[in-house]
Design goal:
314 residues, alpha/beta, TIM Barrel, 2 domains, 42% helix, globular
């Protein structure tokens, strides 16, 4: 047991990322039932859809789970009130200022973690009173920081700058990666891509199968003038690259992105016109597995890495 497992009341310090169009109640409850912490991704849900997912998740697991809330969500007040009304006890926030909602959530007995891409923002999180920080490196699929700091560089920097419990995210998809993250000062990990490609993920199977065939270098961080995301090659990404190469403004990119592009790609399986977000670690994943199997694999790999490294430098 460490500070992360104690904070969230879970068996293993493994948190599932609250990813848009991937993290519904089936995925969240499966991760929680396997001993980690499942998160419902509210960023792709209308308020009443979120309420439905929370209720179904409660029915599917007796273990702790949480909700990920991007703070730029347009109906943020309604979402926050639903979380409180439904008795959710854990919230992960991202893409915004943690000072805005952290005190409000904590006053209502909710444990708060916030996702950051720099040690500067991690310090602001600690000042805001968050219970934990997620340091997300450049390797991640969605909402990367513009600094392009890798997880290997970011985690020790955040650990040095803050005292709060620390989770590492970005490029974590194996037990060996969990071991490495903890060696750098993390007390647990948040895993997105590996869980996005499981059987229980709400992403479209066409999208999953495409991502399971990716090779090293097949993803690219783009849309940095808006909200940086890591995209897989397709017609939409080609259009974004052309626009960015000619110096398109944020407004032009926003118009190109349009509405519903991520839903079209990840949820509906349109591989040409959809926005296909996935992390770099996708190139290491080649088969669709149930969550329980993934969790057991992560634990076995962690233990083997631990044994292999014991005394290896001496």
């Amino acid at each position: 047991m460490n500070r992360i497992t104690s904070l969230f009341g879970i068996q293993y310090p493994i948190i599932q990322g609250g990813m848009v169009w991937c993290s519904g109640w089936r995925l969240a409850s499966a991760v929680s039932n396997a001993g980690g912490l499942g998160l419902i991704g509210s960023g792709s849900m209308h308020p009443e859809v979120l309420r439905e997912h929370i209720r179904k998740c409660k029915a599917a697991t007796s273990r702790p789970f949480g909700v990920n809330i991007p703070l730029m969500y347009p109906q943020i007040e309604e979402i926050m009130n639903i979380v409180v009304d439904e008795g959710v006890k854990i919230v992960f926030t991202s893409a915004g200022n943690p000072k805005t909602w952290t005190p409000w959530l904590k006053e209502r007995g909710i444990t708060v973690a916030h996702v950051v891409s720099s040690s500067k923002f991690a310090m602001k999180c600690e000042e805001a009173g968050v219970d934990a920080v997620v340091a997300e490196g450049f390797e991640a699929g969605g909402h990367n920081g513009r600094e392009e700091t890798t997880t290997f560089c970011l985690v020790p920097a955040v650990r040095k700058a803050t005292t709060v419990p620390l989770l590492a995210a970005g490029g974590v998809g194996t037990g060996e990666a969990i071991y490495a993250a903890m060696a750098l000062g993390a007390e647990g990990v948040q895993i997105g891509t590996r869980f996005a490609l499981t059987e229980e993920s709400s992403a479209n199977d066409v999208f999953k199968d495409y991502c399971l065939r990716l090779n090293e270098g097949d993803t690219k961080l783009l849309l940095k003038k808006l909200s940086p995301v890591r995209l897989v090659a397709n017609a939409f990404r080609d259009a974004v690259e052309v626009a960015e190469a000619r110096g398109a403004s944020a407004d032009e990119l926003r118009e190109l992105l349009g509405r519903g592009r991520a839903k079209k790609g990840m949820f509906e399986g349109n591989l040409d016109e959809g926005e296909l977000e996935i992390g770099q670690v996708a190139s290491m994943i080649h088969r669709k597995q149930p969550v329980a199997e993934v969790m057991q694999e992560l634990l076995r790999e962690f233990e083997l890495a631990q044994k292999r490294m014991c005394g290896s430098l001496i």
